[in-house]
Amino acid sequence: MKIGKFLAIGLLSIFIVSCGSTAVENEKTSTTQAPSIKDSEFIETLKDVKISVLQTPKAADYGKPFTSSFIIQVRNSLNEILPDYPVTIEYPVSNVNEKISFETFATTTDSAGKVLFKPENTDFTVSSQIYFYPTPVSNKKSTIQAAKEAGTSTKFQIKSKLVSKGAILFIWEYNEKGKPTTNCYSVLSELQTRGATVGNAPVNQESYIGAPIETIYKKNHEIVENNFGFLIGGTVKYESPVEKDADKMWTCNLISEIYVIDMTTGKEIFRKTYKASEKDVKYDKAVSNCKKSISKIIVDNLVDNL
């Protein structure tokens, strides 16, 4: 079946808006119900459709709008633009404990075969993808999957509140004997390289390791009040002794338990375990590289989720 015939029929279908509050700059949905075409015929037409990303806006700041729109264009195999073509947009709307929720919005291309889209909700942190694909003619899994495979995606990022709000740290490094030795400078340094205002918590003595969250929060909040957005606490320990293998390489395995307190509410909002492993012919190098590695893993994850 030719793509023109599919469009003539398909444009009579209802396109359901699943997120009515979303800002779409060229919404053109139909309101007339008509007989749907067969799924197999729809899937066949996908061979003649190409969706391209023309513009991806820069990452938005937490709670602030994107400075420009996502723009895509739909063409056929002859490189001809397809106006009034039904497109579904699937994009992140929340990120809670690393579980990203998506919503979909159905619209159509404008006279230039384009869709311009600027989501309103940026009150969360995320580093993910936004998807654009032909609107499926049914809810059959195989049809939806085929439509998505015919579509495209691009980066969808809202910057971390951690960077703008800053943090104080109460993270202790342990030695191989399982004893706390010093505050973890490598995590602090890694956060600073991301542009975050950070420092060690004013109350972070060894005696507070394992103290209730409420106590750690109260003692530090009395001093810094709400000048920092978060308190990041936890430990970095050796998961196993640093040993030399048959190839005479030293192997260092570290494990870190990290939690995050919202300094406004005093509530724990995040907790996770991280691991890293590094090898080197030199013992000191294996250890230092492993500390850098686990710190980067921790900070990457925190920046993507706070």
Task: Provide key terms for this protein.
disordered N terminus, 6-stranded mixed beta sheet, 24% helix, 4-stranded antiparallel beta sheet, 306 residues, elongated, alpha+beta
Number of helices: 7
Element-by-element helix/strand order: HHEEEEEEHEHEEHEHEEEH
- Radius of gyration, rounded? 25 Å
The separation of the N and C termini measures: 49 Å
Q: How many strands appear in the DSSP assignment?
A: 13
Main beta sheet: strand number and arrangement? Answer: 6 strands, mixed
Low-confidence spans: 1-35
Structural class: alpha+beta
Q: Judging from the principal axes of the Cα atoms, what is the shape?
A: elongated
Notes on the protein architecture:
The protein has 306 residues and is of the alpha+beta class. Helix content is 24%, strand content 36%. It has seven helices and 13 strands. It has helices spanning 3-10, 39-45, 141-149, 161-165, 185-193, 213-224, 283-305; strands at residues 49-55, 70-76, 86-96, 99-108, 114-117, 126-134, 152-158, 167-174, 180-183, 198-200, 230-244, 250-262, 268-280. The strands form three sheets. Strands 8, 9, 10, 11, 12 and 13 form a six-stranded mixed beta sheet that branches. A four-stranded antiparallel beta sheet has the order 4-3-6-7, covered by helices on one side. A three-stranded antiparallel beta sheet has the order 1-2-5, with no helix packed on it. Strand 12 and strand 13 form a beta hairpin. Helix 5 crosses helix 7. The longest helix has 23 residues, at 283-305. The chain is elongated, with a radius of gyration of 25 Å. The model is unreliable at 1-35 (pLDDT under 50).
